[in-house]
Design a protein that fits this description.
By secondary structure, the protein is an alpha/beta fold. It folds into three domains: 133 residues, NAD(P)-binding Rossmann-like Domain (Rossmann fold); 187 residues, Rossmann fold (3-Layer(aba) Sandwich); 86 residues, ACT domain (Alpha-Beta Plaits), CATH 3.30.70. The protein is 35% helix and 18% strand. A seven-stranded parallel sheet has the order 8-7-6-9-10-11-12, with helices on both faces. Helix 13 links the parallel strand 11 and strand 12. Helix 1 runs antiparallel to helix 14 and helix 7 crosses helix 9. The radius of gyration is 26 Å and the shape is elongated.
């Protein structure tokens, strides 16, 4: 196994490369930075020289780190993982469950997007798996509880594609208001059909946002810039951006908004949250856009609302059932409603591309790639969606005989006492522990240990009845 590299430097270099190739600034204030004075530059060099580089840790009782990346994970993430010396296998598509089980048996890290289903049946066969990276916002494709109960951390990218999704919503709002999809299709079929009937400006119209998180709030700002009035509904009170206004009930939003956009997670309480009752509460001739999760909208109810003219247009980027790969699959074999949707006027159907931009996928690759490397190399769970968030400062090169103990265990009384009895013969420099539900996560740095000590510590921790997973980095 090649030695791991310093993630902080690698991440900075890769970020710089991506930003340069895409002509992006990685800092909001980058345009306002002035060159360092000679004094500032000298001080910066002295400060940097005084900092000791981090110690590059390697795992005990683990062979070369094997990584499986599915669904065409962006090259930024692939490159970061490869540069660590990990063995990276990359596939452009998802895999059927039986093939996935064969592939996952000996991997330590798996990276997926939204199509791969990491069910209990799959994870049960993943005997070496340490961590899962979801290179997307959602994590509903993973059995999070089973993963946590078996010491497998899960990371995602909650922020990186928010702007891309918000921009898609703006594009679709204008497209629906002007019936651009229908006019374009008519022109492709040779029909010239110039009209203005029921074509609108978006200026002065009311946008109702359901779910005012990262995407909803960005959409709010963009919509206001175009002269729209923004109202939003969320299950928690959230600070409004600009002049947007939170309304107390979803019904009030539906009664008021000309355009309604959905940005909610997939939960039992959001399944079919938009059905016949909600369509009846919407204004006549209003529009619905869904870029959240396919289970949120009752598709047959939407079809009926559009056929009756209650809804003037709709845009869907997600569906209750989606094909596993690209091809001619959006038809009645996928679901009976697919043909119904294709037969409607003024409806935009896109294949789950809300976050599919070069910028978003590059940023997601970096964000999730960094999280995976930090977890594998340092044990940090910051940002994990199913584990307690625990981290310690990096060990440095002047701490050569130190080891980092990571003990994931059932959250039951008496475990810390037993762990500290095992560690008691060594100097514990740092220790942190936290719990989340039935799972607890402990990190401790111990000094003055050699390979025999490490093996003894590992064997003793493995022998505890509360153990879920033991890792030692040294």
């Amino acid at each position: 196994m090649s030695p791991p590299t310093d993630i902080s430097g690698a991440a900075r270099n890769l970020t710089d490369q991506v930003s340069t190739s895409l002509n992006l600034s990685v800092s909001p204030s980058a345009a306002h930075l002035s060159p360092l004075s000679s004094f500032d530059a000298r001080a910066a060099r002295q400060t940097a020289a005084s900092r000791l580089p981090p110690k590059l840790l390697k795992p005990f009782a683990t062979q070369d780190i094997k990584v499986l990346l599915l669904e065409n994970v962006n090259i930024t993430g692939r490159s970061m993982l490869s540069e660590q010396g990990y063995q990276v296998e990359f596939l452009k598509s998802s895999l059927p469950e039986d093939q996935l089980i064969e592939k996952i048996r000996d991997v330590h890290v798996i990276g997926v997007r939204s199509k791969t289903k990491l069910t209990e049946r799959v994870l049960r066969e993943a005997h070496n798996l340490l961590v899962i990276g979801c290179f997307c916002i959602g994590t509903n494709q993973v059995d999070l509880q089973y993963a946590a109960n078996n010491g497998i951390a899960v990371f995602n990218s909650p922020f990186s594609n928010s702007r891309s999704v918000a921009e898609l919503m703006i594009a679709e709002i204008i497209t629906l208001a002007r019936q651009l999809g229908d006019r374009s299709l008519e022109m492709h079929n040779g029909t010239w059909n110039k009209l203005s009937n029921k074509c609108w400006e978006v200026r002065g119209k009311v946008l109702g946002i359901i779910g005012y998180g990262h995407i909803g709030s960005q959409l709010s700002v963009l919509a206001e810039a175009m002269g729209m009035t923004v109202i939003y509904y969320d299950v928690v009170n959230l600070m409004a951006m600009g002049t947007a206004r939170q309304v107390p009930t979803m019904q009030e939003l539906l009664n008021t908004a000309d355009f309604v956009t959905l940005h909610v997670p997939e939960l039992p309480e959001t399944k079919n949250m938009f059905s016949t009752e909600q369509f009846e509460q919407m204004k006549d001739g209003s529009y619905l856009l869904n870029a959240s999760r396919g289970s949120v909208v009752d598709i047959p109810a939407l079809v009926q609302a559009m056929r009756t003219g209650k809804i003037a247009g709709a845009a869907l980027d997600v569906y209750p059932h989606e094909p596993a790969g690209n091809g001619d699959y959006f038809n009645k074999d996928l679901a009976p409603w697919a043909a119904d949707l294709r037969g409607l006027k003024n409806i935009i159907l896109t294949p789950h591309i809300g976050g599919s931009t070069e910028e978003a996928q590059s940023a997601i690759g970096i964000e999730v790639g960094q999280a995976l490397i930090r977890y594998v190399n340092e044990g940090s769970t910051l940002g994990a969606v199913n584990m307690p968030e625990v981290t310690l400062r990096s060990l440095t090169i002047d701490e050569p005989n130190h080891a980092r103990i990571i003990f994931i265990h059932n959250n039951v009384p008496g475990v810390l006492r037993k762990v500290n009895e095992i560690l008691g013969d060594h100097n514990v420099d740092k220790q942190m522990t936290d719990s989340r539900g039935d799972v607890a996560y402990l990190m401790a740095d111990v000094s003055s240990v050699d390979s025999d000590n490490i093996k003894d510590l590992y064997d003793q921790l493995e022998g505890l009845s509360s153990r879920i997973m033991t890792r030692i980095l040294f």
